[in-house]
Design goal:
The complex is a heterodimer of chains A (529) and B (124). Chain A contains 22 helices and 18 strands. With 529 residues, chain A is of the alpha/beta class. In chain A, strands 11-14-17-10-18 form a 5-stranded parallel sheet. In chain A, β8 (137-141), α5 (145-148) and β9 (155-159) form a beta-alpha-beta unit. In chain A, α18 crosses α20 (480-496) and α20 packs across α21. In chain A, 45% of the residues are buried. With 124 residues, chain B is α+β, with helices and mostly antiparallel strands. Chain B has 2 helices and 5 strands, in the order αβββαββ. Chain B has a 5-stranded mixed sheet, sandwiched between helices. Chain B starts with a helix and ends with a strand. Chain A binds chain B through residues 27-31, 62-64, and chain B through 65, 68-72, 74-76, 79, 106, 118, 120-124.
């Protein structure tokens, strides 16, 4: 029998399919055929594998017909990471590697003509998928061994060349090989980037008691937030401090986020698991594909997925393109993005908080209290600008806050020295623990993600609070979707205040947070006390 | 070595390979019907009978694999030509076999030691 099977994984979005690479070497017209819906880069794999095998001093079966099938054959496959599985299956079919050595093993890696093993994108999700299918061993390019090893229960072999892989499979001593350059180009310029955010602290913000509280609620429950206000009022300053209020990621979240970054090709070889919530602030010129996901060829996760479990900050929100704003609806509502193509459909998680900032008008001076500046926009321009925020998107935003510039005499804070990020984070962590305990065994983790019908059945408001919300609906001041959001917010307010069930007070705060009305001083005072 | 001398060596190698192939196939119970049959479309190295099947056989002989193996030299285009030649041969000799098969015999003749003969049945 001159036939062998090796395994690899094909990715569709963030989900992986186990692929059997079957090689048959038998007499016939000499040549190599690759069947099973390969794309262009995968079709070129035949030539890469042939030269890699010859240049690694193994024998390519050049007197036989080689047929390689990627099974299941109906699934479209793309990428270069199939090389290693193809090469090992051909070698096993030709009797140069024991066939049994390929069992329960996944091969991931692109081959160079000299037989070197190059890094590929998406190793972590592939290994996760392999583990889910009960496979036990995985061969990956050496720079990505650490990434593969994040998956528990997998024995990982990080290899530099085809020669090393074959020696390991034969049970021989693994030869030396030259290290292969890691995939991603290291940054030509290094800038302060994310580290800048680590230095930001809530203690720097004087005044702003009202928006500070809103940010705390948003962080505690994972609610979407809209900050509006004239330029220079501190919207960006506030938004950039939100990641500092979030606790470290759980191991589950951390694995999800790292897998997404691996798919996006954004994981550097030295990177370990991502443990801090991400912060992503795309420019308002961003395309739909970059923000939501997509792109030509392979479907890549967008910024909204890269901010999974963290914060996606959309500054100057009304300046984003209309199609981008519209495309945000699904992730804002469901916490995931599905991108459908002709023959594939990819789903990425997108459970980050979306924080939007906008000015009251295009010039940013409307309602500004600074006496020097006066708005110069026409009423028509102002209305156009506002319309981009209202509509279907505004219904999906949980908290609306107006940030007004702090006047010098407000600098003396209402309730003493401003709290530091650490103090607020401790409260957020406690509130999140309460949610975790409540939603144990559920598919969501935070109030902001809890499905509406489940909430009203299992975790209802008190009766008087319920009738208050119903009154708002009958009064036309709240939509049904809005009522669900108020319900979620009320739970977060209750969790922060360590109240066991949201009542009238919590619902009142929730309604104010959602409608954009200023909070009552008593609310803010109670919290400070 | 002059060009004609090299050509003579090549022809001699080809003739050696064809007779070796014929012996190999006859030893397997086939009957040689024709050798080096030519027409304006090309040449068939060997025509044989294997039971009631007509076999059109291409013989490739090489003295080394520097320019690829003898098997690699038989491409899909050559197989298609052999198929056309088989039809011409049948038209010329009113023979009615049950089936027609195209085989290849690849011979590698190293500088020392015995030649390697690889008979591949049914390549087209």
């Amino acid at each position: 029998m001159s036939f062998a099977t090796a395994h690899t994984i094909s990715l569709q979005g963030a989900s992986g399919h186990l692929i059997d690479v079957q090689a048959d070497v038998s007499p016939g017209v000499v040549g190599t055929t690759l069947v099973g819906r390969p794309d262009v880069s995968l079709n070129e794999s035949r030539d890469r594998c042939r030269m890699a095998i010859i240049n690694s001093d193994f024998d390519w079966p050049s007197t036989r017909r080689v047929t390689i099938l990627l099974s299941p054959a109906d699934l479209a496959k793309r990428g270069t990471h199939f090389d290693l599985a193809i090469a090992t299956s051909v070698l096993a079919a030709a009797g140069q590697v024991p066939r049994e050595a390929l069992e329960r093993t996944v091969f991931i890696g692109e081959l160079t003509l000299s037989g070197g093993l190059r890094s590929v994108t998406g190793v972590l999700p592939m290994v996760l998928a392999a583990a889910a299918r009960g496979l036990e061993r995985v061969f990956v390019p050496e720079p990505q061994a650490a990434e593969a090893a994040m998956v528990p229960g997998m024995s990982v072999f990080g290899m530099r060349s085809l020669g090393q892989v074959v020696a390991e499979l034969r049970g021989e001593e693994v030869p030396m090989a030259a290290p292969v350059a890691p995939m991603s180009g290291s940054l030509l310029l290094s800038w302060r980037g994310d580290e800048r955010l680590d230095e930001l602290d809530m203690a720097d913000l004087h005044g702003m008691t009202d928006p500070r509280y809103a940010v705390e609620v948003a962080a505690a429950g994972g609610h979407h937030l809209l900050l509006s206000g004239p330029k220079g009022a501190g919207k960006t300053t506030l938004a950039e401090r939100i990641p500092g209020l979030l606790p470290d990621l759980s191991s589950e979240e951390s694995l999800e986020l790292t897998a997404i970054h691996s798919l996006a090709g954004a994981l550097e070889p030295g990177d370990s698991m991502l443990t801090r919530p991400p912060f992503s602030a795309p420019h308002h010129d961003a395309s739909k594909a970059s923000l939501i996901g997509g792109g030509t060829g392979r479907v890549r996760p967008g910024e909204i997925s890269r901010a999974h479990c963290g914060v996606l900050f959309l500054d100057e929100f009304p300046l984003f393109r209309t199609d981008v704003i519209e495309a945000l609806r699904q992730p804002l509502e469901n916490g995931e993005v599905t991108i459908a193509r002709g023959d594939e459909s990819a789903t990425f998680p997108a459970r980050g908080m979306v924080v939007m900032a906008c000015n009251p008008c295009p010039c940013g001076d409307y309602h500004s209290q600074a006496s020097q500046s006066r708005c110069t926009c026409s009423e028509l321009k102002r209305r156009d600008y506002r319309q981009r925020v209202t509509g279907p998107i505004s219904d999906r935003i949980d908290i609306v806050r107006h940030v007004v510039p702090v006047r010098p005499h407000d600098q003396s804070d209402l309730f003493g020295v401003p709290e530091s990020s650490a103090t607020v984070r401790a409260r957020v962590e406690r509130a999140r623990l309460r949610q975790e305990a409540r939603y144990v065994g559920c598919s969501w983790r935070l109030n902001g993600q809890a499905p509406g019908p489940m909430l009203s059945d299992a975790w209802p408001l008190t009766d008087e609070a319920r009738s208050k919300v119903d009154g708002e609906i009958y009064g036309g001041r709240l939509t049904r979707r809005g009522a669900v959001r108020v319900h979620r917010l009320a739970w977060t307010v209750a969790d922060l205040a360590e109240v066991d069930r949201p009542g009238l007070a919590e619902v009142d705060v929730a309604l104010r947070l959602r409608s954009g009305e200023p909070l009552l001083l008593t609310t803010l005072e109670r919290r400070a006390g | 070595m002059t060009g004609s001398a090299a050509a003579a060596i090549r022809q001699a190698l080809g003739a050696y390979g064809e007779s070796l192939a014929a012996r190999h196939l006859v030893a397997q119970g086939m009957v040689v019907l024709d050798r080096n049959w030519r027409c304006d479309a090309g040449e068939i190295d060997l025509v044989l009978r294997d039971g009631d099947v007509l076999v059109v056989c291409e013989v490739k002989t090489r003295s080394g694999v520097g320019c690829g193996t003898p098997q690699e030299a038989v491409t899909d285009i050559k197989v298609a030509r052999l198929r056309r030649l088989a039809a011409r041969w049948l038209a010329d000799h009113s023979v009615h076999p049950r089936d027609v098969r195209i085989d290849m015999v690849a011979i590698l003749r190293p500088r020392r030691g015995a030649s390697l003969v690889d008979h591949v049945r049914g390549i087209g």
